[in-house]
Amino acid sequence: MEFYKEKFIEIRKKSGLKVTAIIDKIEIRRSTLWNWEKGKTVPSETAVRELADFLGVKVSEISDLPDFNKETDNQFFKADFSWHDFNSGNIGNELIIQQEKALNKMRSINYELNQVWNIVQGMMHAIQAVIYIKDANNKYITVNNAFKNNLSLFKNYNAHGKTDYDFFSVSEAKANEAQDMEVLQTGKDIKNIEGYIIGTRKKKWGIASKHLIKNNDGKTSGLVAIILDTTENRKLNEIRDLLENAINHSTDAFTIRKLKNKQIEFASQGKIPFSGYTTDYFLGKSGYEFWLNLLKPEDRKKEEKYYRTEQFPNERIYEILHKNGGTVWVKLSSYITSYNYAKYLCTLIKVISKTKESTEINHKKNIEVAQKKERTLIAQKMFKSGYSKEEIFKLTDIDIL
To answer: pTM score > 0.70 for this model?
Structure first.
């Protein structure tokens, strides 16, 4: 079929109709109309006839299609011919009764099908995943609200008979059409393919599955596509990876242990700085016992009590046995958190000194600094009270400048 785009544009402009009026009337996107007028895509026969009817011109003026619809007119002719025979008295009363029964049965079946279809539509719209159904010719039968929301379509938009080119950019439409056609032709389903959700301008990420639909005779009648939006999960995973990478490159160690079974769920990668051992020694069922064996007996009893009572001090200092011999002094900062009805102990382990002696020296220095600050404050108060510098130095060992 050939669409006379130049003639269509000319008629549209002469009619004075706005673009918004046309796209609302035949339920298409502005980009779809733009693609038609630029010759990038071609409208379907149904769309051409709708355009001609809306513009008040013949179909042959804007395309090479005939002005009448052969399929519709032939059906009308057959129906008219059938009723002509009926009215001429060529059909007996018995046949009339049978026809009436058949019609009533068809009405009943049609009612039931409508009920089922309404239920299916309701379920589709209730599901937040993007869902669409296509026929065996790769044309849309229906789409759900999630599909429409991604494309900013009205909720009452009718997708029946539309193609991918009516919704998406040329490149996206071509790729999606080819993928769906592969399912229709090969009969092989597509399951759990990750990628950008079509029509979202690469702003949303999802997992797509496409399943073939067959009728009672085993013939292909279409497909259903389901796309789960995993954008938020993807963002959370990216943040988790960044945090884990930062933790693994820290000079301190970090562990997450499940309190119920005392098993470590996470530990910094590489060698644990305070012990020289890799994380493998701390993971698994024997990890808790391995950790206790690094402690001195008196500290081991403290740690066992903390786990038993689930009461941990904010900070605790232990002397740890190092893999290469000797000991290392470490400070543990812990807190308990809950997740999915389970309690976890999160612990940051920081090396504060490699020997007990240096730890005591640092502790002594800290005391001396604190005492000097206190003497300085006293010296300043004495100076304000009129004491001489010599008297102040003699009493506080602080030289007032």
So the answer is: no
> Residue 32: phi, psi to the nearest 5?
-65, -45
User: Are 219 and 308 in contact, with CB atoms under 8 Å apart?
Assistant: no
pLDDT beyond 70 at 397: yes
* Both tokens assigned to 202: 């690469």
Task: Please report, as a single letter, which amino acid is at residue 75.
Answer: Q
Contact indicator for 320, 282 with CB cutoff of 8 Å: no
40 contacts 170 by C-beta, under 8 angstroms: yes
What SS3 class is residue 181?
Answer: helix
Token readout for 237 is 């995973």
Give the Cβ contact number of residue 141 at 10 Å. 17
**127 by DSSP, 3-state: which?**
coil
The pLDDT tens digits of the residues spanning 205-227 come to 999 999 999 988 888 999 999 99
Please tell me whether residue 138 adopts helix, strand or coil conformation: coil
| Of 46, 141, 72, residue with least CA distance to 3 | 46
SS3 of the chain: helix, strand, coil, percent, to 5: 50, 20, 30
Q: Nearest to residue 62, comparing CAs of 71, 53, 73? A: 53
Residues whose CB is less than 8 angstroms from the CB of residue 139 and which lie 6 or more positions away in sequence, other chains included: 44, 161, 162, 163
pLDDT score for 85: 47
Strand-pairing partners, residue 353, are: 329
- Write down the pLDDT at residue 354: 61
In this predicted model, what pLDDT tens digit does every residue of 280-308 receive, in sequence order? Answer: 777 766 678 888 888 888 888 888 888 88
Residues 42-69 pLDDT 10s:
888 888 888 888 888 888 999 998 876 5
Could you tell me which residues come within 8 angstroms of residue 179 by beta carbon, excluding any fewer than 6 positions away? 190, 210
Task: Quote the tokens at residue 46.
Answer: 């149904």
pLDDT at 76: 41
